[in-house]
Amino acid sequence: MPKIRNIDYFYTMEYFFRILKYIKPYKFFAILNIISNILSVLFSLVSLTMVIPFLGILFKTQESVTEAPPLSLNANSIKENFYAIISEKIASKGEVEALLFICVLVLSTFFLRNLFRYSALFFLNPIRNGIVNDLRIDLHKKLVSLPLAFFTKKRKGDVASRLTADLVEIEWSIMSSLEMIFKDPLNIIVYLITLIIISPKLTLFVIILFPVTGIIIGLIGKSLKKSSEKGQAKMGHLLSIIDENISGLRIIKAFNIEKKINSSFQKESGNYRNIMTQLLRKKDLSSPMSEFLSTIVLVVVMWFGGQLVLGGQSTLSGQEFIGYILIFSQIIPPAKSLTTSYYHIKKGTAAAERVYEILDAKNEIIENKNAAEIKFSNEITFNDVSFKYEKNNVLSNINFKIKKGEMVALVGQSGSGKSTIADLLNRFYDLDIGSILIDQTNIKDITFNNLRELIGVVTQDSILFNDSIYNNIKLGKINATEEEIIKAAKVANAHKFILETPDGYSTNIGDRGDKLSGGQKQRICIARAILKNPKILILDEATSSLDTESEKLVQEALEKLMKNRTSLVIAHRLSTIKNADEILVLENGNIIERGSHNELISGKTHYKKLCDLQSFG
Length: 617
Known about the structure:
Layout: H1 2-20, H2 27-49, H3 51-58, H4 75-93, H5 95-145, H6 148-152, H7 156-163, H8 165-173, H9 178-198, H10 200-220, H11 224-247, H12 249-254, H13 258-310, H14 318-329, H15 332-359, E1 379-389, E2 392-403, E3 407-412, H16 418-425, E4 433-438, E5 441-442, H17 448-454, E6 455-459, H18 469-474, H19 482-491, H20 495-500, H21 518-532, E7 536-540, H22 548-562, E8 566-570, E9 582-587, E10 590-595, H23 597-601, H24 606-613
Parallel strand pairs: 3-8, 3-9, 6-7, 7-8
Antiparallel strand pairs: 1-2, 1-4, 4-5, 9-10
């Protein structure tokens, strides 16, 4: 069992130290924090040791020191020189004046202690917030860089939870422990050295007792990480449910299933409540338990040390023993804080583990070291392309070419592999077998930036961002001028309706562009693609979800967009691809027919059946 506990400890601390690596840019603040903590502890120690001469004067047991040794960085030298000053005060101005001198000194040292304590926190805040900010930025960069396949295995709410709730947990559980980690060990070491100087024998007894309390506390916190893991996972699940419920609100209302949805959410939320209640009870046990155990140690030290003093077996005087107990009592708060920080770290490790699961995720789609940039001037070639997602075959032996300026259309039932072909050309996934070439260059040997610059995409789902119309179009070309953006909107048949919106091009379109109609959203997407002016265009069922009037406007915009451009069109409405240079009919990942519209419609083909079903011939 001890082995398992040690493994668990190092496993916990591994994530903690990985997070602490983010401290490098904040070294200057860390140094200032450490210096402030050292000064705070030293002034605290000076103010506490004042109790010994104070009690000596009060109870008239203070021995007079007339000749002090030369002042040096030696505890005994400092002590004797200070006692010499006290003795001189008593001799010249009386005991009351000496007491006043000590009180003013205590007040001054306490002021300086708290001043440096605040400055330590002042310098710690940029470290704490900076580390979490850098971690959040790195996590977002990683999420954006990961391939689409990664997100098919994760629920959106769970991913969002790692970027929000888990980082908050890290901030409050691990970053809040930084103060304790930087300050408390220093406090304990300085106080412990002072106690050894005052009484080595009694301090040895203390050192033996403390590990016993540490073992007991460690046993209590063993299950805290497991409970925290459950809590973080359940929060991710809850966020996924919330995201799904908001997205599917129309269906929930239309099918009158609010009660069922609420009941299901209530059950999941109740499970989360129970997990967090159990977790917080364990966490809250840390403070009273560590305080009680520390008090036990204090009482044992008082009993053992008191016996030594009363029995004349110690060189300690009465006031020195009281000073010893007072200084020892100051070890209890930092020891308690360290225990609490251990609990916090255990709790935060579960969140850190979930964050690092994403940061450590392997991106299998990487840029070739020798990748080059090309200028598309000839053709796109699919050579014996086969693709498998997990264990399911999606494409088998796909072969076709798209010459520059040509339009090739893909048709077939849902799940036949049409969108996968488009995704492979974009290199959202990497091939299992075969190759895709642009001008005889494998797309794996083309830089990502160059490949994505060559290709423009308009999808069935209008992907827009919660921003202005102007900024959404501008995503096609970040450095575009206002004139270029307006020109693109005009070509996309969008300029007229944009001017009719409340703030024109500055109008915010809401989450996913929900303030606009389907046709309006699609024309904004087309304007974005027109502004990009790509050499290769992918249209993924761009008009399938539109009404007749909107389809006409969008189709006109698409025709302008496709003019003199190489196009790969995924078609749902076959009326839109009559003029395609070649039509590929897919079924179960295979090309079963190919030819022009007139060639395919003239025989008893699968394509003709699809056309007949749409009342088109």
